[in-house]
Amino acid sequence: xxxxxxxxxxxxxxxxxxxxxxxxxxxxxxxxxxxxxxxxxxxxxxxxxxxxxxxxxxxxxxxxxxxxxxxxxxxxxxxxxxxxxxxxxxxxxxxxxxxxxxxxxxxxxxxxxxxxxxxxxxxxxxxxxxxxxxxxxxxxxx
Amino acid sequence: xxxxxxxxxxxxxxxxxxxxxxxxxxxxxxxxxxxxxxxxxxxxxxxxxxxxxxxxxxxxxxxxxxxxxxxxxxxxxxxxxxxxxxxxxxxxxxxxxxxxxxxxxxxxxxxxxxxxxxxxxxxxxxxxxxxxxxxxxxxxxxxxxxxxxxx
Lengths: 142, 151
Description:
- The complex is a heterodimer of chains A (142) and B (151).
- With 142 residues, chain A is of the alpha+beta class.
- Chain A has a single domain, classed as Thiol Ester Dehydrase, Chain A (Roll).
- Chain A is built from 3 helices and 5 strands; from the N terminus they run βαααββββ.
- In chain A, strands 1-3-4-5-2 form a 5-stranded antiparallel β-sheet.
- The two termini of chain A are 15 Å apart.
- A 5-stranded antiparallel β-sheet of chain B has the order 1-3-4-5-2.
- Chain B is α+β, with helices and mostly antiparallel strands and 151 residues long.
- Chain B contains 3 helices and 5 strands; from the N terminus they run βαααββββ.
- In chain B, β4 (118-129) and β5 (134-144) form a beta hairpin.
- Chain B has a single domain, classed as Roll (Thiol Ester Dehydrase, Chain A).
- Chain B is elongated, with a radius of gyration of 17 Å.
- Chain B is 19% helix and 32% strand.
- The chains are: A alpha+beta (142), B alpha+beta (151).
- The A-B interface holds A 1, 21-22, 27, 30-31, 33-37, 51, 60-62, 64-66, 68-69, 72, 77-79, 81-88, 134 and B 24, 27-28, 30-34, 36, 38-39, 44, 47-50, 54, 56-58, 61-62, 65-66, 82, 85-93, 95-96, 139.
């Protein structure tokens, strides 16, 4: 099991290491199936472009899932979140090639709360655009 | 057809019970690319302090979106679904959802408002076990872009 971050060891203002998460067309097809969200803009380039998008885009919830993983990989406990919210500020555009796109996530410890809880503010970018804003997770630590 | 503001404050019937399975959790974890054994292996989950395999933090959307989505899809509400994007999402957790939970979701449209040429709808969906335990609450903002406004 991964070592867990302890509340006493966390300092406000400290930065979490940046992590880059890949996303390909296959990721989106799998996420469609697993989530039940088959909106065509996540797999059909023709229709995505017809409604004004540059290409197929990732599900916002796929991006949110990567940001959640970023946090729980840091805490070492996938069940440590007590609150998690994001705004979807720009789409993650996923081209039809072997590389796909990437989502770069960074985080900063914003506040320590009572009850051994810590607030982490997140940013997520793809192709230079901020794809999540107002992203904030609250985790409970040992 | 404009969006019907009378729907603000309306609570929809709870969804039919949904049984959270280890297989579905593992499929979801594979799809988001998270390799944690706590999502797949009961022994690993127990070692981490959980009664069974737990679901990733965004897994509840599988259940809550079906609920809030059917509320938003009510023809009398007048949303043009082709124009809809997901604006914001937030979860408040009592505990992680886990294999064996049987849950229902119940959605309320909290507000409907116009911002420029968009209509923003805030929904709140409570996810409870059939025994009544609140597991998590999902707050969504659904945006209808460039529709015909509200009435």
